[in-house]
């Protein structure tokens, strides 16, 4: 694969839908760039590719590339980590496996570079792609552990595997769901990076030190669900989820080189914060009792404020977050207290933004969003004659313009 090594201006489609976020790409079903038509035909016949079981979930931008994940939640996912070029003018481009087809092929004897199933991915300041692979096939209908859960890191400038770290078995519980990841990289110190991985099912944050090549797990009551916030209604489907700590975002460095880590549960509407110095201290993996009050409540987004992921625009000091029960994207200016008045929608649509599942901010200030109608997928109610998966984009400044989040 060849990745264009220059930054490009994002080509935003001129879609007149009244939204600030504009559709860049959309699909009714997920299609791949197969090595040949014979490979595709054989995969369809063998069941290694079942189009309706492939759902787009996570995104991350790097230069001319948009990485796209397709978790192996059901049988028949052809490739879990993929990319498309932003210069591709197709409305529904085919996904190309990254870094290769071989890496993404499901095998009972996975190699060092094999990828089984990944949800969300992150590119750090050092041009490294961080991938958390839970190693599970058919997660929803009957999970099979193909490979141990691992952190897999690629050098994007060379398209080479840097490291595969097997997450210790003692940190993974039967209910573990490694939902999200943020990468904490100090300025000009790539080796001193930390990954914070939200375990939404077992209510903890796994911390990985790149320099020491080891991991530990932090627990706290704030990582659990809010029992009063487990009911969701998306589009025409009502359901309950019990996912704990899910969304996370990093604040700017402080004068002492620490930074705050914001986090929240999916089954909840409150936002919390803790210093990264707490997470990076492995002595608190035993107990956080002595620093319990260092985990603080920031505020509450209010009714229907459930959010999967969030990202902080540090230039504007504005948090953007998905609003899954409101078919939209919200914002909160950190200069204000967080409540139902200050956490406002910047965009919403009952078609294009059904279940906004992931959000990311690129280096040029563009907000990218994936919507994927997840409840319909889980309940086998997808209409494959319609567009089900969308990637939308807008400039951060444009999204907050005219809202309470715009300090100007």
Would you mind describing this structure in some detail?
The chain is mainly β. The protein has a domain at 31-166. 7% of the residues lie in helices and 37% in strands. The chain has helices at residues 37-46, 101-104, 276-279, 374-378, 396-400; strands at 22-27, 59-62, 65-69, 81-85, 96-97, 118-123, 128-133, 136-137, 144-145, 150-155, 160-166, 178-184, 194-199, 204-209, 214-218, 231-234, 237-240, 245-253, 259-265, 270-275, 296-300, 310-313, 318-323, 328-333, 344-348, 356-361, 366-371, 389-395. The strands form eight sheets. It has a four-stranded antiparallel beta sheet. A four-stranded antiparallel beta sheet has the order 2-3-4-5. Strands 6-7-10-11 form a four-stranded antiparallel beta sheet, with no helix packed on it. Strand 2 (59-62) and strand 3 form a beta hairpin. The longest helix is centred in the N-terminal third of the chain and has 10 residues, at 37-46. It is globular and about 60 Å long. 48% of the residues are buried.
Key phrases:
408 residues; mainly beta; four-stranded antiparallel sheet; 28 strands; disordered N terminus
Shape: globular
Radius of gyration based on Cα positions: 20 Å
Strand content: 35-45%
Count of DSSP-assigned helices = 5
Helix content: under 10%
Largest sheet, spatial ordering of strands: 1-28-27-26
Mean pLDDT: 92
User: Which regions have little confidence, pLDDT < 50, spanning 5+ residues?
Assistant: 1-17
Distance between the terminal alpha carbons, to the nearest Å?
43 Å
Topology, number of strands: 28
Structural class: mainly beta
| Oligomeric composition of the shown chains | single chain
Biggest sheet layout: 4 strands, antiparallel
């Amino acid at each position: 694969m060849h990745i264009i090594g220059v930054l490009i201006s994002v080509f935003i489609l001129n879609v007149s839908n009244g939204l600030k976020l504009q559709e860049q790409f959309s699909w009714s079903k997920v299609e791949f760039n197969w090595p040949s038509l014979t490979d595709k035909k054989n995969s369809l016949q063998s069941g290694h590719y079942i189009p309706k079981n492939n759902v787009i979930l996570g995104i991350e931008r790097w230069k001319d590339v948009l990485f796209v994940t397709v978790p192996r939640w059901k049988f028949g996912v052809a490739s879990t980590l993929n990319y498309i070029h932003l210069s591709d003018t197709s409305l529904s481009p085919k996904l190309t496996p990254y870094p290769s087809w071989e890496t993404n092929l499901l095998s009972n004897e996975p190699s060092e570079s094999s990828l089984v199933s990944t949800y969300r991915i992150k590119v750090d300041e050092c041009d490294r792609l961080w991938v958390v692979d839970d190693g599970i096939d058919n997660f929803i209908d009957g999970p099979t552990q193909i490979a141990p859960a691992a952190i897999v890191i690629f050098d994007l400038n060379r398209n080479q595997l840097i490291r595969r770290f097997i997450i210790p078995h003692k940190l993974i519980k039967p209910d573990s769901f490694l939902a999200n990841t943020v990468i904490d990289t100090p300025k000009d110190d790539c080796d001193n990076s930390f990954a914070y991985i939200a375990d939404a099912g077992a209510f903890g944050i796994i911390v990985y030190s790149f320099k020491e090549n080891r991991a530990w797990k932090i627990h706290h009551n704030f990582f659990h669900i809010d029992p009063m916030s487990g009911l969701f209604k998306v589009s025409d489907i009502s359901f309950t989820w019990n996912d704990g700590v899910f969304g996370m975002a990093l604040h700017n460095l402080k004068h002492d080189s620490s930074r705050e880590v914001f986090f929240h549960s999916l089954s909840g509407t409150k936002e919390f914060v803790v210093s990264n110095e707490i997470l990076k201290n492995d002595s608190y993996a035993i107990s956080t009792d002595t620093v319990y009050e260092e985990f603080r409540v920031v505020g509450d987004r209010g009714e229907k404020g459930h959010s999967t992921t969030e990202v902080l625009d540090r230039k504007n000091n504005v948090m953007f977050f998905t609003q899954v029960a409101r078919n939209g994207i919200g914002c909160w200016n950190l200069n204000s207290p967080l409540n139902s008045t200050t956490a406002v929608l910047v965009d919403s649509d009952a078609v294009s933004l059904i279940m906004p599942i992931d959000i990311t901010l690129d280096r040029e200030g563009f907000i990218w969003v994936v919507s994927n109608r997840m409840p319909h997928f889980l309940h086998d109610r997808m209409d494959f004659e319609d567009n089900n998966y969308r990637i939308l984009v807008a400039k951060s400044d444009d999204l907050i313009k005219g809202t309470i989040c715009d300090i100007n």
